[in-house]
Amino acid sequence: MATDTSKYKLNRTIIPQNFHETMTYLVADSMLRVKDPQRSVKFYEHLGMSLIQKIPQPDAKFDLYFLAYDSPNSLSHKAHWSDRQGIIELTHNYGTENDPNYTIANGNSDPGRGFGHVCISVDNIQAACQRIEDAGYKFQKKLSDGRMHHIAFALDPDNYWVEIVSDNKAEETEHIKETDPSTYRMNHTMIRVKDHSQSLHFYKDILGMYLLRTNESPSANFNLYFLGYVPGANSDVNTNPLEGVLELTWNYGTEKNPDFQYHDGNSEPQGFGHIAITVDDLDAACKRFEEKGVRWKKRLTDGRMKNVAFVLDPDGYWVEVVQNEKLKSRANW
To answer: Looking at the annotation, which residues are catalytic?
Structure first.
């Protein structure tokens, strides 16, 4: 049975190998562990997101909260969570909210450096940042800090970084005082990678994503690569209006150090958990990945959960693979 990755979502016209097999895949979500779900849900709702699904797992003592932009102005209004891109999945392990010693690794300091941030795109960035600040939330970087005055980084309750970028040119919106969160997008998730060539091969040729844009910064010794499931996209896409984009950050020279590695977020200290892609046919997709020699964290046949699989990227980040329930009913989440 063939798999059609065009139905996958990852919430250049360089065509990925076997692109016809992955043209329905989607980057659905990015999972973050949180200490207190009430605080975290409130924060992301303030950013304009809605709680579109909650999956309680009382036997395993954790709950999953799925947040996404779901207004009539959103890209996936009222779509099932498995048939959309740009979800933030919050994982709460029972009791952490009452543990004064429990902390989250946000991915931006050692020994937990790896995951970098999630990013939302907004209409009027100055007004959007002011609205967040007026609600009492802190910033890692305000618009006025440093040299880059067109991006900011807010901090969620667990100190995860949330990048804020603008759909409009920042110099054209500095005098606008209003912002409409119903127009926002959950734009991308950033992870750091050791060897850009290995990572690009994995995400393009195995997972079937398209390389949408590359930002090279030789003076700062790093490059940024933006990928996603956007069939037919060319090599210089404006990614800000999109959802489900994956940003890979490569710092020059890391690939030459045999002892260098990034933290996957799932060993101590924990924080970021995984990105998830949804596919048209879960069994066929996993068979395809097996034929391509992927490293598995969990096959479909492992353990009790027969409706999810996890493959490992070259840096050991987990990529969850789930059935798109609109295309083929399987789990009835």
So the answer is: 163, 320
